[in-house]
């Protein structure tokens, strides 16, 4: 199993979609059955519980491959299939459909005939694509937290810029400089960074958190 951070290409837009309820598909290729599933999920703890439930429902399955996409704690697992032939094509479908807070699972029952890397890639991707066709989706707004360090004299100017751009100031701490924790739409991050740097003439530090 591999863990991963959500990349910018996943969250390129601040509007994405999540499933309201579980959605399913079933595909048979050369006697192998591929059972696609989509579940609304918001944490790895929920994912562990759901995967345990699915494995208990399918004790004779040869593979239970999955992809989790949720804020800060995402991952994927080929579960014994050749690397890149199962979870990656599933992941690609989720990214293309702009899905978030979601667990995609494909349960495979072995049919006795090898499909090859290309066949596996198509089967796993299609199982999730077919499940997407039956899913009911709702839009969700993706937000990003940003931590900025500024001179005390520049704090008020940065706060005014936040008001103008609709950026929330969640927290301010003071040490040698003022550190602001901001929250804004993901697709507005780059523009806000440019505006802030221009406004403060480059005297601005981007931090990973408020404690730096």
Features:
212 residues; alpha+beta; Ribosomal Protein S5, domain 2; 12 strands
Give a written overview of the molecule:
The protein has helices at residues 44-57, 87-96, 116-134, 155-165, 189-199, and strands at 2-4, 15-19, 23-29, 32-40, 63-69, 74-77, 102-109, 137-141, 143-150, 168-174, 178-185, 205-207. With 212 residues, the protein is an alpha+beta fold. The chain folds into 2 domains: 2-140, Ribosomal Protein S5, domain 2 (2-Layer Sandwich); 142-207, Alpha-Beta Plaits (2-Layer Sandwich), CATH 3.30.70. A hairpin with a 4-residue loop joins strand 5 and strand 6 (74-77). Helix 4 packs antiparallel against helix 5 (189-199). It starts with a strand and ends in a 5-residue tail after the last strand. Mean pLDDT is 89; it is low at 1-11.
List the helices and strands and how they pair.
Blueprint: E1 2-4, E2 15-19, E3 23-29, E4 32-40, H1 44-57, E5 63-69, E6 74-77, H2 87-96, E7 102-109, H3 116-134, E8 137-141, E9 143-150, H4 155-165, E10 168-174, E11 178-185, H5 189-199, E12 205-207
Antiparallel strand pairs: 1-6, 2-8, 3-4, 4-7, 5-6, 5-7, 9-11, 9-12, 10-11
Summarize the structure.
With 212 residues, the chain is of the alpha+beta class. It contains five helices and twelve strands.
| Global mean pLDDT | 89
Q: Which structural class is indicated by helix and strand composition? A: alpha+beta
CATH class of the largest domain: Alpha Beta
Head-to-tail CA distance between termini: 31 Å
Strand content: 25-35%
Q: Which stretches are poorly predicted, pLDDT < 50 over at least 5 residues?
A: 1-11
Order of helices and strands, N to C?
Answer: EEEEHEEHEHEEHEEHE
What is the overall shape? elongated
Number of domains: 2
Major sheet: order of its strands?
1-6-5-7-4-3
Q: Counting H and I runs of at least 4 residues, what is the number of helices?
A: 5
The CATH topology of the largest domain: Ribosomal Protein S5, domain 2
Percent helix among the residues?
A: 25-40%
Count of individual beta strands: 12
- Main β-sheet description: 6 strands, antiparallel
Query: For the CA atoms, what is the radius of gyration?
Result: 22 Å
Q: What kind of oligomer do you see? A: single chain
CATH superfamily label of the largest domain: Impact, N-terminal domain
The CATH architecture of the largest domain would be 2-Layer Sandwich
């Amino acid at each position: 199993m591999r863990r991963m951070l959500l990349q910018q290409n996943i969250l390129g837009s601040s509007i994405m979609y999540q499933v309201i309820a579980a959605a399913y598909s079933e595909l048979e290729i050369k006697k192998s059955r591929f059972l696609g599933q989509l579940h609304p999920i918001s944490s790895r703890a929920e994912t562990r519980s759901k995967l345990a439930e699915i494995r208990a429902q399918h004790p004779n399955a040869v593979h239970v491959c999955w992809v989790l996409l949720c804020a800060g704690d995402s991952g994927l697992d080929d579960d014994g299939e050749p690397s890149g032939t199962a979870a990656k094509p599933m992941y690609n479908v989720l990214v293309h459909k702009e899905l978030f807070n979601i667990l995609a699972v494909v349960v495979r029952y072995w049919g006795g005939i090898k499909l090859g890397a290309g066949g596996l890639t198509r089967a796993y991707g299609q199982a999730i694509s077919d499940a997407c066709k039956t899913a009911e989706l709702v839009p969700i707004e993706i937000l990003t937290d940003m931590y900025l360090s500024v001179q005390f004299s520049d704090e008020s100017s940065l706060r005014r810029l936040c008001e103008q751009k609709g950026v929330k100031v969640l927290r301010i701490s003071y040490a040698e400089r003022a550190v602001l924790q901001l929250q804004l739409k993901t697709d507005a991050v780059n523009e806000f960074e440019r505006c802030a740097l221009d406004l403060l003439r480059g005297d601005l530090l981007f931090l990973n958190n408020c404690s730096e």
